[in-house]
What we know:
Blueprint: H1 6-28, H2 31-38, H3 42-48, H4 52-75, H5 80-97, H6 99-117, H7 122-139, H8 146-164
Helix pairs in contact: 1-2, 1-4, 1-6, 4-5, 4-6, 4-7, 5-6, 5-8
Keywords: DNA-binding
InterPro entries: Homeodomain-like_sf (IPR009057), HTH-type_TetR-like_transc_reg (IPR050109), HTH_TetR (IPR001647)
Domain HTH tetR-type: 7-67
Amino acid sequence: MVRMSAEERRESVIRAAMSEFSRGGYYGTSTEAIAKRVGVSQPYLFRLFPGKKAIFLAASQRCLRETREVFLEASRGLHGEEALHAMADAYTRLIAEQPEKLQMQLQTYVAVSAAEAAGDHEFGEMVRKGWMEIFDAVHVPLGGDVNETTTFMAYGMLVNALAGMGFPPGHRVWEGFYLSARAKPGQGDED
C-alpha cells in the first residue's frame, strides 16, 4: 500500500471536513468524526491542523474558492448577459449536483455570524476576503458594473436561501428568476 504524503492527507482532511461540517456545522461536528472519515487518529489530525477552527477555516476557504472557480469557468470568454446566464446556470447546477457545497456555504455564514458576535473577527475577515474574490470574479464578466454585480450576488444569496430551505424545482417561488437561475432537479422533489 502506498503511503500518502502529509499534503495528500491534508487534502483528505479538507474533503472530509467539508462533508462533515456541511451537515453538522462548526459546533455540531466533532474532530473525531472528521478523523474517522479520513481514517486517521485525532492526534494525527492535529499534526496536520492546529485545531478544529483551522480545519473549518480550510474547509470554508476551499468551498469559497471552488465556488469562485465555477463562476470563472462558466464566464470564460463571455460578457454581459451571456456571462450572467452562464454563471447562474453553472452555479445552480453545482448546488443541485453537489448539495454539500451549498450546505457548507450556509454553515460558513452561520459560523461567521457566531464568531463575530463572540468578538472573533479573524474568521469573518477570511470569509469576507473569499466572498469578495467571488464578487470580483463575477464583476469583470458583467462589465464591471457594480449594480449588475450586486444584483447577481443578491439573487445568488436568495437562491442559496430558497434551495437551502428545500424549495423544489417547479415551485412557484422560482417563477421570478431567469430560467438560468432557477432550481435544478436534484434540489428537492418536484411539486
